[in-house]
């Protein structure tokens, strides 16, 4: 075909109906997962100052929240727990009556159809704020694996539908898969935070989950931001160990990594649009510097266009209404 004037690409942009007809990428409510922060106690609703519009909730207040989420058509939530007591080995993470375990039971009672995914990590539960057992100032990979497996198993015994290890220890997916299979939970899937970067975009989350490390940082176990080839190795390893879904985190600054993972592996792929992404847009919208709805939907579309099948987003409820 010859070029202009016979070829006019604007012909198919003349109306919303035409644009919709040839649209290549669509974000659907069914693609979204909404994160929830749960705390111990009763009648607890604590606003997260760096994440306006989001709260930490106690289990007795979860029913109304999850009923709203389910009514919007959002298929799943991911739970993060903040216990009252923390210790060196994060024992509240795998206690049968821990904060997440109680929350799972409350959610399943209120909305049995809502998928409950649990974040499996120790950072919210340890007194030092690191994601594993600390020995001589260093996070000991292998000593941590047993505790992560215990945590995942306790969540599953409380009726979690899926577990999501986020700690970035080597071998954690294998350890969790063996623990689940060995206790009759062969059908519980694992959503692995496969390529989780040591990102500056996590700041608001650390306030929300009260999980900032008390010394050092997490760069010895989370991924170095300049690396993408290493991300493919991490994803490959998690798949080999039994992950059912793999994740890239954060999402927006790592769209190139999402695309590379999508092009390399024929596996369900999630992306986590993290707290810093949410906080930046909220702050700008409050100053009327951005059209919040337009920016959020464009951002979610970009993440989906990059190759993600699933998007974890603090904007999931608002996006569900807009969509």
What would you note in describing this structure?
The protein is of the alpha/beta class and 323 residues long. The chain has one domain (25-322): Alpha-Beta Barrel (TIM Barrel), CATH 3.20.20.70. The chain has helices at 16-21, 62-71, 99-110, 141-157, 172-182, 203-208, 229-241, 255-264, 275-286, 292-306, 316-322; strands spanning 32-39, 45-47, 55-58, 76-82, 115-120, 133-135, 138-140, 162-165, 191-196, 245-249, 269-273, 310-313. The strands form two sheets. Strands 1, 2, 3, 4, 5, 8, 9, 10, 11 and 12 form a ten-stranded mixed beta sheet that branches. It has a two-stranded antiparallel sheet with strand order 6-7. Strand 2 (45-47) and strand 3 form a beta hairpin. Helix 2 crosses helix 3 (99-110) and helix 4 (141-157) packs parallel to helix 5 (172-182). The two termini are 37 Å apart. 47% of the residues are buried. The mean pLDDT is 95.
Describe how the helices and strands are arranged.
Blueprint: H1 16-21, E1 32-39, E2 45-47, E3 55-58, H2 62-71, E4 76-82, H3 99-110, E5 115-120, E6 133-135, E7 138-140, H4 141-157, E8 162-165, H5 172-182, E9 191-196, H6 203-208, H7 229-241, E10 245-249, H8 255-264, E11 269-273, H9 275-286, H10 292-306, E12 310-313, H11 316-322
Parallel strand pairs: 1-3, 1-4, 1-12, 4-5, 5-8, 9-10, 10-11, 11-12
Antiparallel strand pairs: 2-3, 6-7
The chain-level structural class is alpha/beta
Question: Architecture, CATH level 2?
Answer: Alpha-Beta Barrel
**What is the CA-based Rg, rounded?**
20 Å
Question: What is the level 1 CATH name?
Answer: Alpha Beta
Shape: globular
Low-confidence stretches: none
Distance between the termini: 37 Å
| Residue fraction in strands | 15-25%
Order of helices and strands: HEEEHEHEEEHEHEHHEHEHHEH
Mean pLDDT: 95
SS elements, strand count: 12
Which fold name is given in CATH as the topology? TIM Barrel
- The oligomerization state is single chain
Could you give me the name of the CATH homologous superfamily? Answer: Aldolase class I
């Amino acid at each position: 075909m010859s070029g202009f004037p016979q070829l006019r690409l604007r012909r198919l942009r003349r109306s919303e109906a035409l644009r919709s007809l040839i649209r290549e990428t669509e974000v659907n409510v069914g693609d979204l997962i909404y994160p929830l922060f749960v705390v111990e106690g009763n009648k607890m609703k604590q606003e997260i100052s760096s994440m306006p519009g989001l709260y930490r909730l106690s289990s007795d207040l979860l029913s109304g929240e999850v009923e709203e989420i389910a009514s919007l058509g959002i298929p799943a939530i991911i739970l993060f727990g903040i216990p009252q007591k923390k210790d060196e080995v994060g024992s509240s993470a795998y206690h049968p009556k821990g904060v997440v375990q109680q929350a799972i039971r409350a959610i399943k009672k209120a909305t049995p159809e809502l998928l409950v995914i649990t974040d499996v990590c120790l950072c919210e539960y340890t007194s030092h704020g690191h994601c594993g057992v600390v020995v001589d100032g260093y996070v000991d990979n292998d000593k941590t694996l047993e505790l992560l497996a215990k945590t995942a198993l306790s969540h599953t015994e409380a009726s979690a539908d899926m577990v999501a290890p986020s700690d970035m220890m080597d071998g954690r997916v294998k350890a969790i898969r063996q623990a689940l299979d060995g206790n009759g939970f062969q059908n519980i899937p694992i959503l692995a935070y496969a390529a989780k970067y040591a990102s500056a975009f996590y700041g608001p989350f650390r306030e929300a989950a009260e999980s900032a490390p008390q010394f050092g940082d997490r760069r010895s176990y989370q991924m170095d931001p300049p690396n993408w080839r290493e991300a493919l190795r991490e994803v490959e390893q998690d798949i080999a160990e039994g992950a059912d879904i793999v994740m890239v985190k954060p999402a927006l600054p790592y769209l190139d990594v999402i695309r590379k993972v999508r092009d390399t592996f024929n596996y369900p792929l999630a992306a986590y649009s993290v707290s810093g992404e949410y906080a930046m847009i909220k702050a700008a919208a409050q100053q009327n510097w951005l059209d919040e709805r337009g920016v959020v939907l464009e951002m979610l579309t970009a993440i989906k266009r990059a190759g993600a099948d699933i998007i974890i987003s603090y904007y999931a409820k608002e996006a569900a209404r807009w969509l």
